Protein 1
Amino acid sequence: MTNHWRDIRHADVVMINGANPAEAHPVGFQWIMRAKLERGAKIVHVDPRFTRTSAVADTHLRIRVGTDVAYFGGLINYVLQNGLYHKEYVAHATNAAFVVKQGYGFSDGLFNGYDPQTRLYDPTLWAYETGADGFAKTDVSHPRSVLNLMREHYSRYTPEMVERITGIPRDQFLEVAKLVGQMGRPDKVMTVIYAVGLTHHTTGVQLIRSGAVLQLLLGNMGRPGGGMNAERGHANIQGNTDHAISWEVLPGYLKVPAPGQRTVADYVEQSASKQLRPTAINYFGTNYRNFMVSLLKAWYGNAATKDNEFAFDHLPKPAGNSSWLSIFDQALQGKMEGVMLSGMTATSIGPDSNQVLQALSNLKWLCVMDAFPTTSSEFWRAPGIDPAKVETEVFMLPASHWIEKEGSFTNSGRWVQWKEQVLPPEGEARHDHWILADLFGRVRDLYRQQGGKYPAPVFDLTLRYADPRKPQLDEIAKEINGRDLATGAQLETFADLKDDGTTTAGDWIYTGHYPDTGNLAKRRDGVQDPKKNDPTGMDFYPSWAWSWPANRRVLYNRASADPQGRPWDPKRPGIQWDAATSLWVGDVPDYPPDADPTKPGAPLWFIMTGEGMGRLFSNGVADGPFPEHYEPIESPIQNPLHPAVSATPVAFLYDQAAGRPNRFGTSSEFPYVATSYRLTEHEHYITQQVEQLVQLQPEAFVEVPAELAREKGIETGDRVRVSSKRGKLEVRAVVTKRLGPLQVDGKKIYQIGIPIHWGFVGIKTGQHWLANALTPFVGDASARTPEFKAFLVNIEKM
Amino acid sequence: MEVTRRHFLQLSSAGAGVLGVSALGFDLTQATRIRQHLRIEGATVSHSVCPYCAVGCALLAYTKKAASGKVELLQIEGDPDSPVNEGRLCPKGATALQLAVSRRRVASPLYRAPGAAEWTRVSWDFALDKLARNVKASRDRTFVTVDADGNVVNRCEGVAFAGGAAFSSEEGYLATKLMRGLGLVYLEQQARV
């Protein structure tokens, strides 16, 4: 989230796409309801299903899954055509006036720079024209200004086209567009809330970008009650994304080093953003080297010196994409030998479960660290599998629970909240980090005894803990924060990080959370005393826990104030310039705290980007500088915008590339659209081990639209077979009006709903069907997030 | 007077709405409060955070040391001081105690040999030693120091690690560091899937 849960109460419009917070995030949903009840906010729910979120929304727009780019595109077009965007904000805070490099083009569904052989774009072509001073040219009236290119690009997203693609009737769409258009006024603000209903698509990144582009146009980024707010589905997805259990980044979103980079300078040159305007601060780009060297010092200690490029060679450099789908693709190809899973069950989680089971069977060994048995630890005896034929060696290591250890969870709103150890680990269970530290220690011992391939990084890795086999989380929290190596003092801000090897920081965005005065994530000054603990009355609660970065509660908050530093809406200030003290006051400013906005040459507002501004046009994505609607890989229609390029031209097709048979279905065989989701009573798969929750929601089922059920003679409680090209479920049907039919491009489209929670492990072991047996093995062009939310199935009564 | 569920529903549907002294002849709310109080009296209060979604509801956990020396978890409830949840919990958070204390936990390390039809109960030393040998063997077999273009890459291509959405950030940081220390490039967690 750019903002945080409690902040949602300050919105005038709550736009919810691809999410069902009333059921999936019920306690967070109270802030949406408080916006509605306390300030009359309008809730717009755009979702294929009518859910409990829709039930309390002012408007529910039934949308075909995977078409939100067209929906947002229609809103962007409406706002541009009718001049409803926040003009002063757009001029000061976005790259609208930047002139795009000659050669830019978009026709018949393709941007410039496409190579059909590699199925890749060259995003470096989507750049800006530069002047003699080396900076990007700006001229908003130029035919290739971002704003003009944008007008042209989005002019195709008329209400009629939105209806053809999304199935939302144009009068309903226009009613919402009118409401959204009002949010461009300085005294109005809208929040956009989304979840994996937007991300789980081959166009996932562009679905999110569409919302962000709209929010920039309306002047809603950086403002209390505004922003782009992702609701995350696991307690600590955020924290462990920040800390980079993710192939493409190092902690703090530093890019992973690439082959060919020999020095830290090479790395920074290719990874850090360049300053593109004279008054852009480009904070991230400028400090990239400080952050990277401090990380290398944290990891390799005395073995990282100026003379050896701070041990930059030690860092592994991946050959290419190494994300979830790639792991199992490598296993299918017989190249992956071993997989370690912690609190994450591959069998249930990944798309195309049958293919994943095959991949697990191809491994030499699999290690599962979990508190309970999982569908991965038990995969070798899954229904239909003969254990005698599975040669994989499997380890099940009992891990301690969240309540049996301390440490922090970072919530969706970036609040780092420390939890205490409440219970000792049950029985023989051990903490995940002790298991890993012990394992690492044993591997290191083996290298000492036997030698082996390039053992230097194994020996050089710092383990500055009282007991390196049992590190304390408090010790690790301090390491993440970082220190000054000369004085030994814990650092208070990442601004003090250096590139000469005199400082450390395990994750620069967390620097400051653990100064010498103590762990700020433990702070508990909350609503027990709102006057004292929320002095601005804007719900920042600065002394409740700690929020990255720098305890800032709303990202980009410079943009909450006008050019003179006055809040756009005085009733909802983020930060404001206080001339008396010559300081910004309010939230922790996302801006130099003493930069006088009224002085000429004041820094641009978005301090992290090279542009100094928010990007309406960006070359940071693999599939286009502006979001464009593409059909899901499996779709019932051809893309009405450009039928020849119907689905994304740049999604990586794993099965095709590896020479495996095609696993995608067509609408002639599989005529219905399906999507997957969670229920209130379950969280992914672990809750199959919780008696009360299994009692509340005991059995796998699918939701079938009433009209389709009539056609098929299906009644609630009937057993049905739902099948895709990849697999099937045989479960009960729930017939519902919550999933109505849609008219899409002249065709009647039915959508079937599939809750994900069941498997062959848990209290009710008879419920062995895996929802992801149906989903396709393909992901987003940039992020490779699998397309769990839009695929084709057939359904029959059994 | 025993209040059955049926009786309760009858009273509610009769328009009582809020159950109080007038409907039943005594105040159930008060009784519940006293029962709760007795349950947690003298207990130690610890602060935790809900393990399920990422709203980040703050929890209060009440424990007592039994005569046997075992720490018993008595109750988990929402923390009223939290600006995130103000004491509220959803059905999952409200039943977190059943996740925390469960007879369904894996009791000891388990090992399943290739082709075996059952688990074998093993010691931690057995499991970690064997796993360490596997990691080293796979690393040695699949480690690439220099790629085909002559670039120093120092990566292990044959081992992957995935996880972290359920454990503490500090554990995740250590996992990142140790796995990259071994040269792993296939690293993943729940954010993408």
Note: Helices of chain B lie at 5-16, 21-24, 28-40, 91-94, 96-100, 124-142, 169-181.
Protein 2
Amino acid sequence: MDLLIGLFEAFSNSSTYVNAALFAGLLIFAASGEWIAERSGTINISVEGMLLAGAFTSAAGYTVTGSFVIGMICGVLGGMCVAGVQAEMSHRLTADQFVVGLTLNILILGLAGFLAREFDLDTKTASRLEVPLLNRIPLVGEAVFDQPWPFYLLFLIVPLSWWLMFRTRWGLEVRASGEDPQAADVSGIDVNRRRRQAIYYAGFTAGLGGAFLLFVQVGRFDEGVVSGRGFIAIAAVIFGGWTLRGTVGGCLVFAIALALRLQLPNYYEGIPTELLQAFPFLVTIFGMAIFAHRVSAPASLARPFVRGLK
Amino acid sequence: MSSGTSDLTGVDVDAASTPAVELRGITKRFGAVSACDGVDLVLRRGQIHGILGENGAGKSTLMKVLIGLVLPDEGSIQIDGRPQQIRDPLTAAKLGIGMVHQHFSLVDPLTVWENVALGEGGRLDPEAVRLRIDEIGEHYGLAIDPYARVGDLTAGMRQRVEIIKCLRRDPSIVIFDEPTSVLTPEESTSLFKSFRDVVAAEGRAVVLVSHKLDEVLAATDDVTIMRQGKVVEKIVTSEADAPTLARAMVGRSVSLRNERAALGLLGAAAGPTAAADTTGVADASGVDPDSMVSPVERPVVLSLRQASARSSKGVVLLDDLSLDVHAGEILGIAGVEGNGQRPLGDVLSSLVTLSSGDIHVNGVAISSKVPGAMAAAGVGVIPEDRHDSGVVLDMTVAENLVLMDPNLAARRGVMDPASLLAIAEQLITEFDIQCAGPDAPLWSLSGGNQQRVVLARELWQQPKVLIAAQPTRGLDVGAIEYMTERLRQAAADGVAVLLISSELEEILDLADRIAVMYRGRVVGEMARDDADLERLSLLMGGAAA
Amino acid sequence: MNDQTRRAEWIGLYTASIALALGGSAVLIQVTGGGSWAVFQALIEGSLTGNGRWGLTLGAAAPMLLVALGTIISARAGLVNIGQEGQLLIGAAFAVYFGFLIRGPGPFNLVVLMVFGAIGGAVWAGVAGLLRFRRGVPEVLSTLLLVTVASQLVAYALGREWLLLAADSAGARNNVSEQLPPDNRLPNLDLFGNQIPFAAFLAVAFALFVSFALARTVWGFRLRMLGRNPNAAQRAGVSQTSFGLRAMLISGAFAGLAGALMFAGGGFQFSNFKFVPGFSGNIGWTGLLVALVAREKAIPAILVAFVFAGLRTGSSFVGSTGVEARVTDVVEGLLVLALLIPPAIMFIRDRRRARLATTART
């Protein structure tokens, strides 16, 4: 069929992979932190705001100092500030996490848009780092091994997240807090503290993601630079069944869909781009429906914990 | 027998040695109720100390104070002679106090070793934890696979994990809180043996919190008896016997019920001859208990035939269970908790669907799948966990009283505040429900009064069948008596009463007939008069009678 | 602690929080070179005091209120529905499609629009409902994911003439639908010098009705039971599946109705009686926020919706003060966060007081 040929041609074009890698990078940064946050029992709906704040502050940092490294550190700080509000309000002050999260998204969007128009942010993408030999692998090589240098932080963040979750006591307590906060509490774990920390980590990675967006993918700040990708990160975690492998896989799937949306129309007109964009979401939904009995969401996901209340 | 506080001078221990734990004047109030009232407690090393009391006597709260889950309003704590403030479980752990919890301490999706490692500090070292688990398992006879998923384990195995989790910290003071409620008799015996091992060789202080006389008699060195939040007696176990303990626990002259309580499952005095000795003995009210027995042959109201049910994970809940309950009789379901009693109650509450078999009320088949079908057919339920399915805590007393059928206080779909109030006031008076008023939220009522609300509502619907699941659990003595009377009254009025209880004493006291459940089915039935404890305990433990 | 002091505490906390929010916004504006007082004046003028403005604000508040009402109903049933944005879109899309398909006379078509709007929203929420009650998929996840699916679906439909695209759109920059003819539009009532859209009256009427239904009917009683204790509800004959599903459908219906009314009412910034990309203007999310800020009570939601709407209508006047209109999003965000703080602090204070009171008796 023409569709298959079209797909084949799209996948034979290396720019598909480059685009996919760029999309995936942002998602993986955001999702590896969101994964930990959700495993701890919170749905961190302010990821969107965290990414945007990270993007803005990293742009600001670079504009002021001219240094990418400082820009990235500022990005991290920006993400963690948003995380701070989310974490402290929902898991110390017991405010509803959805209200806080949604409001933060609105607030950051307004703030970033407002400030961006007031100040002139002068940024560009970071210098490329080529990995010799590997970057010659057909199709994928350029996408993965010939990117601006902040891209490669991905290879650190993902293992870091895994290590934190499964090799440290902290990760064990985070998991316990997400699965059975009562039991964790009785065992002496401060459930809400672990959840706050998980959110801070999500802010950390999302801040990096925002910096990635600026210094690797886009190069300029614009208030629409995130436009919904934070929600995709949340979807990726769900798609991946709350495992890290699945989450990264989910990010790749969503990223490929986004890349195809750009590339496929060059080769085949039959699939509406809207279907392409919606496709990963549909897969996630149907996946949950089909594997209903094995949906391994943390048992206490999105349920606030107060000692003494069930 | 003296009822004053005797101290432990008879105990063979170096009198100059400092007690491991000394609690003085511990008081804790929850609202108007004193859960603990000026409690003194002394625990010595090398001793197994029992804390005996009925449900609601304050034992659990006292232990929660010691373990740091509850802050006392008054009183002092000394550990090894030094005053301490125990603010949270971490502090308690640092002081060497460990508790083997009954529930709520294990995380199902995690493995055994992960659960054991939970709650400590320091680096996570799976190998070290695994080694320790094997060590402890061997030492105390508590072998278990460190990599097993806790959610897949049986109740007995899960308790093992709890014990290992506690012992791993090498506590010098070990508290066992009602440990045998989910164990079979053999498992209980081996557990008590491990108490000795834990204590003897290593100079620890062990506390056994229980409401079962026979356990305390079998396993402890000395006993503190609590009643209604206060310490009423301290006895050296070797100088005590069942009736003494029973009388101290309950605080009245011993009635027939408590004589039977004194016999229990493991006590040496158990046996058919002992039971026969107590028949014909008048209880305090002067009525010959024997004349209350012998149910008349009346029509079968509730009938379950080959009822089977499975959990969503495929675990067998009910296995080909059949039973009949006649009008006007009390059928007691005996058994160790966890053998299908809860699913039985749930099925009759429309909360669990049968995979096969059927249920009939007065000859009419009732579907277990349709929500509300049981209630509509006249099956009233006093659930095992009223917070789970019996009441809505955030609603008012009045609203809870019409929970099952709000149309009773409504006209054409709109609630009528006047009739709601009338109904509520009538029931509050009739059942003597202590509350601030019909508009008081249910959470403001004490446990006993909440149970009265449930009772009032169910009885008011004039049910044909009444399921009473663990109806007196967690209630004080007065509330227990009230509930018991009401159940008897219901039966006298012709209601078919199904009493599910893990308290054998309760069943022996109330039931006309007794059926024993084991692994989801009825393994034996008998009239109360024919009930002998040996046979019952065999059935409860799964052996054929 | 008596009621008087308690009320004083509440008032104090709220005043302080709101002052903090407004103060923070003011600082932000000043620091970036604008005049904060001018901005606030512009906001008040744009939303309230200006000529015909409060009518406009009411019109903007109407769909928010309707979405909030739907959210309140599903929340009472214990469901977490965060997909109102999607339900609103699908509802509006249904309304547009069937409205142009049927093309009845004026008032009749209005009814068609509203009915199909409600149906569309209900269907979309129903998908999540079925997923939840037949397959156990948490509705918080499915409704969220369905929002994106909805916007993609609607974008697709807007690109196709056989669906929503206006005929003879070739060469047009944006994909838009046909415009609703004047006699099919929702009327405005001229009161006190303001054009008040009919939708506002409808929304307030619904709010009163929902408030009554939840508090005083058997249905509302059962709904509350379901939300608070599903097991007890099941025993009493309230099936989680059917009752809960119905609550989801009703919730979606309100959002869909809101979308239909936005289309037919053509109020403030509502795309002038056409269905356009970005039609929903985040009204769905805002309506959800309104419900949450109003602590899931119908009558307070009326006021909260008005405030949120006021920020929107007011923001169009802010531009003339030389300050970026975006700043109203900042004010909105800070205000909501500020409003969350008093209940949280009171909750924590109450717990601390309870603990201290008992230990004080030593």
Note: Chain A touches chain C through 48 residues (CB under 8 Å).
Protein 3
Amino acid sequence: MLAGALIRCAPGFGIDERELDTRLNAGSVSRLRQAAGQGRDLRSFYIGYAARLVRGDLGSSQALRQPVAKLLRERIPVTLATAGAGLLAAWSGALGLAIVTVWYRSRWADMACGALSSALLCLPAAAIGLLTVLVSTRAGHTAIVAAAIGLVLFPRLFRLIRGILAQAMTSPHVSSAVTRGVSGVRLVAWHVLAPSAGPLLALAGVSATLAFGAAIPVEAVCDSPGLGQLAWQAAMQRDFPLLVNLSLIVCLLAAGSNALAEVAAGRIGVERR
Amino acid sequence: MTRARRAAAIALGAVYLVSLGASSLPHFDYARQFRDCVTAAPSLGHPLGTDELGRDSLARLLHASRVSLLLAPAAALLATAIAVAVGGVAGYRGGAWDALAMKTTDVVLSLPWLFLLLIARAWLPLTAPPWQTLVITFALLGCSGWAAPARVIRGAIRELRASDALLSAKACGYSPWRVAVVHVLPGLRAILLAQFLILIPAFILAEGNLGVLGLGVGEPLPSWGSLLRDLVNVPEVMERPWMLAPLAVFAAVTGCFYLLTSSGESI
């Protein structure tokens, strides 16, 4: 709703570039003006948008001249595949390395992992995407995009997961388990990871929106036809109907992933009690 | 201050000095074109070569450093000021104000920051004079980065509100403004400085992303983001690896800022 309201205040809203075409006669220009000004009234825009949404009609993209629903249907699977694979790779790498650094407490391992995450943290996501393309010339397109998204997410996840696990390691029950001679794998699985499940699941919820944020520049520079590239194109061409619908999807994604994480954390809490 | 932090502070100081000093020299004009040496390799005359329009890459890098290193702290200052206002009202007034401010903060924090920036950038004119795009880009960063610091500041103010010093000041009948300026703000100095320093590299990175996407500072004015846009031509970068110099400077400066704000646990 906010996006729809703000867009109505944007300079140039409701003006069609084709009005400048000298080949068009007065009648055509008038019809273009009428069509462009149709959504100017905020209340009628919301009512019309909600009514169309119920019918599954999300309107048409001004720049791409295609129905928004069709564009989203084509692009959502691409982003789900690349961002999902990237998210999985980032979580595997970050969780694995965080366990190694927390468990072994080796200064060198800590420094090496810290240096790697810091180096990646210092680069913009778009630059990481470009460097991934530069380095991996033989890999497939989807793999390159997924790897770039994974590299963007890795340092953020690593730092947070390491902090959560390091805190869990200092708790009294872990010291007690160590003195009782509990083995390494069992200690990590039952005494460190299990009590940290709540914060880790909350992080998993947040990481879905982080993945979409990373997908925007990465897909744009890697020329991957996903939602991120669509958001970039919509911003570049000031395609307001597309931006409103993308805002809706991003809000649903954020709310959905956080709700899922909360439900999962709640279930784990009940089981542990 | 640890040795690493001291080194980072010295390196940042050196970069500031060089970028501010050298970019004001007439030799380093960022828009001057050398038409006889377009896309030239590094030489004594052009240590980082020239771009496809024959402009000296070193001069552009120096000017870009000046732009980004001056405006990112300015944007961070703006964001910190907004965070103080939002976090201050939420923490000090409490009740419905607190609930409203924190709900807004949660919504802003749960959405991808770059997407919000993209939406807001599209909302503003894309074709504007270079100086206007520069101001728009950094003002936008300043206006959008307040949410995380606001949450921290609100927590700190809530702690301060319950302190004996503040209760004593209130008991003395001081006005809310005097309490805020004399008793609350000085107590927040360390937190505000930390939040300000954390925001600078975040804004440099965001400007870098916007620049690569073509939504940052407009040509011919250079910024780190607009220089990184040249890397989009991957085959050319493979042939002319010195084009990666702006990225190296960018990463080094951002790393120094992160080092300056790190807790010292790891690099």
Note: Chain B touches chain A through 42 residues (CB under 8 Å).
